Amino acid sequence: MFIIKQYPQDLETPYHLLLDADPSKRLVDKYLACGILFGAFYEKETIGECLLIFHNDISAEIINLAVLEKYQNQSVGKSLISMAENQARLLGCKYMEIGTAEPLVKYYEKAGYKYHKTIKNFFVDNYDFPVTDNGIILKDMVRLIKNL
């Protein structure tokens, strides 16, 4: 059984997971500086992470979410999302946002997120290198939203 908790500051930052979800270390470091990082732990291993940032008093965003492949489809990601949503709710947020690529939209819709908008060429315009998912070059970001 895994546990979910705020990521301890004395542990090494799980860049292997963070960079799996967002390959720009510059952006990951920017978000880490202002966000709350949650970890999923099995025994002594970090098996997943979720990075939460706040846009204002009523809006938060899961800006980064990753789970080690061998632990996927075991509710780790779902539990991380739930922890982030609960934290945002406790801090007074009214809704949660997520920006993702088309291949992951159905995953977030199953968690209750609804389509908000598409940002054309987001991955092309914001990264100096091609961003891929399973060998497919990503172009557009899909923005999803959920009322808390």
TrEMBL record:
**Annotated SUPFAM superfamilies:** Acyl-CoA N-acyltransferases (Nat)
Listed InterPro entries: Acyl_CoA_acyltransferase (IPR016181), GNAT_dom (IPR000182), YpeA/RimI_acetyltransf (IPR050680)
Pfam families membership: Acetyltransf_1
Organism superkingdom: Bacteria
Q: Which UniProt keywords apply?
A: Acyltransferase, Transferase
Single GO molecular-function term?
A: acyltransferase activity, transferring groups other than amino-acyl groups
Residue ranges annotated as coiled coil are none
Q: Write down the CDD domains for this protein, in alphabetical order.
A: NAT_SF
* N-acetyltransferase domain segment(s): 2-148
Answer yes or no on keyword Nucleotidyltransferase: no
* The protein's name: GNAT family N-acetyltransferase
Which organism's genome codes for this protein? Answer: Candidatus Mucispirillum faecigallinarum
